[in-house]
Description:
By secondary structure, the protein is mainly α. The chain has helices at residues 31-50, 69-93, 96-101, 103-120, 122-125, 149-158, 183-197, 207-220, 222-225, 251-260, 275-291; strands at residues 14-19, 22-25.
Amino acid sequence: MAVEQRDPFTGHLTTGHEWNGITELNTRVPRVVYFFLIVTFLFGLGYWLLMPAWPTGTSYTKGLLGIDQRNVVTQSLKQAEQARAPWTERIEKEDFAAIQKDAGLMADVRSTGHTLFGDNCAACHGLDAKGGKGFPNLTTAAWLWGGSPEAIAETIRVGINSTNPETRSSQMLAFGRDGMLQRPDIDNLVAFVRSLSNPVPAGDAAAKQVEAGKALFAANCASCHGDNAKGSTDLGAPDLTDANWIYGGDAQAIHTTIWGGRQGHMPSWEARLSALDRKILTLYLLDLRGSTPQGEPKSPAGGTQ
């Protein structure tokens, strides 16, 4: 039987293990550790008894307090709706023009609309709603399907090329890929389209391309974009004479669009957002457009909706 040894300095027994003259002490676990272990066990036991905790197959233990977080959230939402009711009821009942004239209502619209936009629209259009390549700038006055309050609200409701049965539908044909135009013709058409917003100086070598492209435009594009190239809100065809471009207004971007076509997509928000939320979003977008300085340069990667 091993003889117990004690450390001469601390008086604690040793374990009998020694490494290079260093002896391991057999010290007791501090009482405070036992205290916290007991407290933790009692807390866990109490929580299991008082709160919903254990699954029972098809249900779970409800706890003695009967607390249900789903009910708590539901109650919180009801309280929030009641707090919003004084101004949301006015938003639902009043027309767009009357709401826009009311500074108090518009303050609520800006606050709530900013949250709605950030949660649902900013992923594509950006937090500032100025879009990017392939996504329209919503702060300009250029809108594919019209920029009136009613038109914007309808676009939000049904979407564009979406799954909604009433969706707005539009598509830019692939004139090159589908063999409708040859590459030289597309080059001429690109020159003409660019000249609509960036006029070519008289006598410039590109003027001949522009003239040839004009005839091509009349034969292939005017049916949607109009004889004056200002587009059609009935068809969702963009105005080609301004500086707003969804996919870019440089020669390469326009060539890519004419060659391969475009078909944008915007989801329908009818199922996800209530009529009230969609109206608030519409007012928010109208307010953003109104707050954009008229002299502010328009981004060539921006666009219409």
